[in-house]
TrEMBL record:
PANTHER family for this protein: DNA UTILIZATION PROTEIN YHGH
Gene3D superfamilies recorded: 3.40.50.2020
SUPFAM superfamilies: PRTase-like
Superkingdom of the source species: Bacteria
CDD domains for this protein: PRTases_typeI (cd06223)
Organism: Mycolicibacterium fallax (Mycobacterium fallax)
Transferase in keyword set: yes
GO terms for MF: glycosyltransferase activity
Name of this chain's protein: Phosphoribosyltransferase
Family to which the UniProt record says this protein belongs: Belongs to the ComF/GntX family.
Keyword tags: Glycosyltransferase, Transferase
Length: 211
């Protein structure tokens, strides 16, 4: 019935009639040796892991969720994030009690899009995970531009001194920074720096994709 009202297409490949097709579900699957350890240009000083390359259905799903309000894609992306998180626990990279801190989103952007997608994704991914809480502890200050199209130096300058603590309480234990995409590493590096200078024990970064 809904198809008659609203054309539905796969958020990964555009195939009509379904929101997330089996082919894209397979493409987003987190394999036994994933998440991958990646080396962004700006090293945040802790290991950075990504579920896969920012390409194909993964890229389409992230863009559709963030830019086109396809909230129905939060489910599949959260499953992938939860699997990645579980792996990091199994590998001993992180341990519980664990606090997941979403990387900061520009506030006006989050408002316009109906809530910060990374925070919502992290909450969905950890909803059933014992010993893991999500704390939206970081925000960006006014004056931060969208980083799309900026190079390494420009991204770093754009964020320098502009990542702030929200004052949201951190329950203690280790902290994992989570973001959608790691590109130059500027956001991760500045976020880790701010958390660490506040005495927060950040141990790793996990992202949905690397570019
Ligand atoms: Zn598809």
């Amino acid at each position: 019935m809904l198809d008659l009202v609203l054309p539905v297409e796969c958020g990964g490949c555009g195939t009509p009639g379904q929101r997330w097709c089996p082919v894209c579900a397979t493409a987003l699957r987190v394999h036994a040796d994933e998440p991958l350890l990646v080396s962004p240009r700006l090293d945040p000083g802790v290991p950075v892991f990504a579920l896969g390359r920012h390409a194909g259905p993964r890229r389409s799903a992230i863009v559709a969720l963030k830019e086109h309000g396809r909230r129905d894609l939060r489910g599949p992306l959260a499953v992938a994030l939860a699997t990645g998180l579980h792996r990091l626990l199994c590998w001993g990279i992180v341990e519980t009690p664990l606090t997941v801190v979403p990387a900061p989103t520009r506030r006006w952007a989050a408002r316009r899009r109906g809530g910060d997608p990374v925070t919502l994704l992290a909450r969905t991914a950890t909803a059933a995970a014992p010993g893991i809480t999500v704390a939206a502890a970081l925000r960006t200050a006014a004056g931060v531009r969208d980083s799309v199209g900026l190079g390494v130096d420009a991204r770093q300058r754009n964020l320098a001194g502009r990542v702030r603590l929200t004052g949201c309480p951190l329950p203690g234990g280790e902290v994992l920074l989570v973001d959608d995409i790691v590109t130059t590493g500027a956001t991760a590096a500045e976020s880790v720096r701010v958390l660490r200078s506040a005495g927060v024990p950040v141990v790793a970064v996990l992202t949905l994709a690397y570019a």
